Amino acid sequence: MNRLDMLIGGLQPLDREAMASAMQQLDRLTKPPGSLGRLEELAIQLAGITGELQPDLSRKAVVVMAGDHGVCAEGVSAFPQEVTPQMVLNFLNGGAGVNVLARHTGADVLCVDVGVLADVDHPELIVRKVRNGTRNMAVEPAMTEKETEQALLVGVDLANQLKDEGYRLIATGEMGIGNTTPSAAMLSVFANLPPEECVGRGTGLNDEAVRRKAEVVRRAIEINRPQADQPLDVLAKVGGLEIAALTGLILGAAANRIPVVIDGFISSAAALAAVRLSHGEVTNYLIPSHLSGERGHTLQLQQLRLKPMLQLDMRLGEGTGAVMCFPIIEAALKLMNEMATFDSAGVSSGK
Description:
- By secondary structure, this protein is an alpha/beta fold.
- It has 2 domains: 3-54 and 334-345, 5,6-Dimethylbenzimidazole Phosphoribosyltransferase, Chain: A, domain 1 (Orthogonal Bundle); 60-327, Rossmann fold, CATH 3.40.50.10210.
- 49% of the residues lie in helices and 9% in strands.
- It has helices at 3-9, 16-28, 38-50, 83-92, 97-105, 145-164, 180-191, 195-198, 207-224, 231-238, 241-255, 265-277, 297-304, 320-324, 326-338, 342-345; strands at residues 60-67, 108-115, 126-127, 169-175, 260-262, 286-288.
- The chain has a 6-stranded parallel β-sheet.
- Strand 5 (260-262), helix 12 (265-277) and strand 6 form a beta-alpha-beta unit.
- Helix 6 (145-164) crosses helix 11 and helix 7 crosses helix 9.
- It starts with a helix and ends in a 6-residue tail after the last helix.
- The mean pLDDT is 96.
């Protein structure tokens, strides 16, 4: 049995006793039962993940996995691949959208090179390069099975490291020009949907380019024949290095009982792979942040059976939508633990 099989086999269900205690605590607060809606559901979920009513989630990180895609040779992006390493440097220098929002919410941004085509030199870059970009999935498999497993373990190992360093809340982020194309291909395979229903405008494609992108996805699936019931096969043939690393990060976080806030379209492709690999076990460890403006995201969330907390028409990626939800998560816990109870406030419960 390899490391991935052992990790998946060791995943634990949520702590039902802690969830029951959270429900009882919420019902004692000075409010009508259930009146805080999703915030109450979130507080109960966090209790189940951590086993605590008052978990300390103050140390939090958004992990930006970066990788390039050979399928860019097919003209599926409005931006050139040179943007990937340029944006990696932007993350590391604190100038990207996710950096601004992370500073606003008190989170750290960690950038990981899993498969950037160029070699980026920066002291704060976490270099875990499996290869310099994927192959062109419209011609051949994007990765070998071994490379896919290596990328998955990058994420698993990073989750373990973050746990050791005291992080207790993780958000998924990514950077990779062209990565909406493999994400759409994965959705098409996992959900058995036509590529036309899964592809979107990505970095700003026009109608003709979107049609071409759908045809590229169709060709990649026809040539590689990924098997929907074999998630590792799907990741290898039509996925991406950063997507596989995010999949591993999600699995590793769940194994460490750390809640994972999922960003948009690319992060949800990784979440879908993680759920399929774990036979559904990681689903309860996922917190969906927002509904992306990318066309296929609604379909991914339907597959995951998750309901996003925000709808801001964002489609930047990087983890921006996920980081926006950090204050909501912290608010849910504060409400449960800081509101007065009917007894302590001397308020009649109406029962």
